[in-house]
Amino acid sequence: MKTAGLAATAAIAGALVAGGVQAQSVQLEDRQAVIRFQGMTVLVDPSLDAAPLPPVDLVLLPSCGAAQQAWLARQTLDRAVAVLAGGPCATELRGMGVRHVHVLRLWETFELHKGTAGLRLTAMPGIAQDSVVDAPGAMLDFSEKGDKSYRIYVGGEATPEEIGALPQRFPGADLAIVRRAGTPVLGVPQLARNGEHVLRTVASLPDDGYRFTPLARSSRPSLQTR
Fold it and tell me: Where residue 141 falls among pLDDT bands split at 50, 70, 90?
C-alpha cells in the first residue's frame, strides 16, 4: 500500500490492537477478519484454520474461494445468521445446502440491528476493476444511537496498485479490509503531505487487530465510486 509522505498530524479514529477481543474492533484471526461492534459480530471470509468463534450475526464473502465454501459446509449456522455473497458464489452455496444466502447485487442494501447497534451494508463494485460480479465489495455502515457511525469498505483479492487506488475510488471509507496474496490487510485512508489520499496499513499479520471509534458527523460522503 502506498504510505510515503504521510502527514504526521493525520487523525486516525482507532488504534492497533495487540491482541484480545475488543468491543469495537477488527481482528485478524489466521486468514479471516472479524468485525465486532457493540455486541454485533461480522465474519469476513472465514478460514478453515481459524479457532472456533462465538456465535456470529453475519457472514460476508467477498472472496468465496474453496476455503470459505469448505468452512460453510462444515457449519450448522443459526437460522438468524445471514450469509452474503456474490451471485455465482451464492448459487454454489445453495447447491451445497447452505441456507439463508443473500445475493449481493450492485448498490442493493442489507440492514441488521442488534440491541443499540445498527449495520447498513451496501453492495459496491469490487476493489479489482473487473470484479463487480464475481467478487463484489461492500460498504458497511456501523452506527449506534445518535449520529455516530463508522464506515468500513470490504473487498476481495487485489493487487498493490488496486489497493493504493482505494481512497480515490471509495472516498467515504474510514477503514478498508482487503486481501493481498490471500491474506487480509487493514488500511486507513489518510491525507499525505503532498495532498494525495493514500492508504496506511494498520494491520496485516495473524492476530493483529485495529480498534476503532465511531465518528460524530452531520453528513456522509456519497457512496458513488470514482
Answer: very high
- Taking the C-alpha atoms of residue 44 and residue 88, their distance in angstroms, rounded to an integer, is 18
With vertex at residue 137, the alpha carbon angle to CA 132 and CA 138, rounded to the nearest 5 degrees, is 135
User: What is the rounded distance in angstroms from the CA atom of residue 144 to the CA atom of residue 122?
Assistant: 18
Q: How many angstroms separate the CA atoms of 195 and 192, rounded?
A: 5
Name the residue with cell 455486541: 39
- The long-range contacts involving 38-42, CB below 8 angstroms and separated by at least 24 positions, are 38/114, 38/115, 38/116, 38/117, 38/142, 38/144, 39/114, 39/115, 39/117, 40/112, 40/114, 40/115, 40/117, 40/119, 40/142, 42/119, 42/140
- Band of pLDDT at residue 220, cut at 50, 70 and 90: low
Which pTM value belongs to this model?
Answer: 0.81
Count of beta carbons in the 10 Å neighbourhood of residue 96: 11
What single-letter amino acid sits at 19? G
Cell of 98: 447452505
| Residue 14 to residue 52: CA distance in whole angstroms | 26
d(CA 93, CA 88): 9
Give the amino acid at 209: G
- Please state the rounded mean pLDDT for residues 146-157: 86
How is the chain split among helix, strand and coil, in percent rounded to 5? Answer: 10, 40, 45
pLDDT tens digits for range 60-107: 988 777 888 888 877 777 777 888 888 778 888 888 877 778 888 888
